[in-house]
Amino acid sequence: MKKNLYISITALSLAILTLSACVKDYADPSRATQDKISESTKGLTGVAVSLQSRYAAGRGNIYNTITASGFLANELTLLNQGNTAELQLSLGGNSLDGGNTVMANLWSNSTKIIYDADYVITRSASISEKSLVSGLVGYSTIFKVLALGDLAAFWEKVPAASGENVNFITRNEAYVKIIADIDVALAAITANPISTAFLGTIPAGIDIPNTLRALKARYALYAGNYALALTSANAVDLSKKSVFLSTAINQNGIFGAVTSTNNLWQPIDDTFGLPVGLRPDANDKRISFYLSINNTIAPKWRMAGFAATLTSEWPIYLPGEITLIKAEALARQATPDLANALVELNKIQTKKASQDPLGVGADLPPLVGPLTQAQILTEVFRQRSIEMYISGQKLEDSRRLGRPQSERKRNFVNYPFRERDQNPNTPTDPAF
After folding, report:
1. What contacts 382, CB < 8 A, 6 or more positions away?
2. Which end of the chain lies in a sparser environment, N or C, as judged by fewer CB atoms within 10 Å?
3. pTM for the complete prediction?
């Protein structure tokens, strides 16, 4: 595949994003040229490959979701108040409005990813080589559902489609759409396993089928479909990992923006932002995995873990997340299975780093039961907050698991001004 093809498509995508709010039709005067390029097999593959860079690199969705959730759910501390958007997120409440650039960028970037992914998925149907089609559909679906899930994590309603004056759907309806899209992708892969030739054209690190199953478990849980969440989680191979690989050229976005500069934000401290009674045990080895200590220059607590170096890999999901989905789903069933929920929790509590594909392990003595449903769910929240630290999921966890509102600086965020100015269907902003 020619390098200049990737460059041209990526440049075109960036230009469109800069000039358009998400409600715009992404067409432009070069549409005919883009269509001619993109409808070829190489062109569609190039568009699909660009999705990962848009999602993971620089100030893409990884940076924006981690920054937003991290401040709103008390995982981070701000180092420089000159960073206006991050300052607003750190204050929360009425300080955060539709002009916040972190949230506006998350909105526009997510909607562009969804648009491009749909473009690939739709046009790949005309390709005769079905093992390539299943690869294009599976790979693009990963980024489509991640982007839609990111929107649903921070806004009460999300766009139902791309285009002018689109209508909005609820978060739960978005999760239902996500699950349906994943089912289509998994069915395509089952019918026609992804060719090794296609896998050789995309960035290494992502196990497509396993990632789709993991994301299905995640969003089924968020949708309150506990039976499906449990079934989907059980289908995930926990011996495997699925990650965004970083290089000296395509650097780890959090390292580049945060770890290497020490002028933006850092972890709040070794409490992980948890209240008294839920904080990590002093012997929890996940503390030293996620945090480094500088006793000479403030702040004391610094980013480590998946943001330790410019080439650190970044997980799309953690195997520990899947185990904790099982624990929560078991506890929330119509007939709660609290005993087996505790078994799943203890898999996380006692796991050694050497037993985890990503090296995350608490290595603590097991929790002692029996525990009530409320105690199980509180422990799920505690374990997710530590096991999945700085994953962009804590705000969702805090709401879903019924934590006190005082532990959040906002429940949901305002819609971007650019969206409200151009789309009369934009919903009312949340009260908090």
Report:
1. 274, 278
2. C
3. 0.91
